[in-house]
Design brief:
By secondary structure, the chain is of the alpha+beta class. It has 5 helices and 5 strands; from the N terminus they run H-E-E-E-H-H-H-E-H-E.
Length: 125
Amino acid sequence: MPIDATQPYDDSNIFAKIVRGELPCTKVDETEHSLAFHDINPLAPIHILVIPKGPYVSWDDFSAKATEAEIVDFTRLVGKVARDNGCVEQGYRMLANIGKRGGQEVPHLHVHIFGGQPLGPMLAR
């Protein structure tokens, strides 16, 4: 169910639990401020999630409140994960669902990296 990205951060969400080590994940990479792991329900041969470790609900929340170090770290990890997983040569898609109309289901900022096959049109009609 899509969430309201304007609401306060809920530290009981699944990604917060993963960051705290309360739930397992198949880790791809990790930095001081960010974590990348395989999606448990992959929609493409490569489907990796990259999240900031801090309590940010959405891109708006993150861009307004994160430190410069967190923003740089997160952005660089997204690029590194794409490179390290062979996505750059063939092309890939980055997707961040934000809020109700964007279809965001977890109230923690996350970027999906999809690759490994042709991905079709950007939006289904």
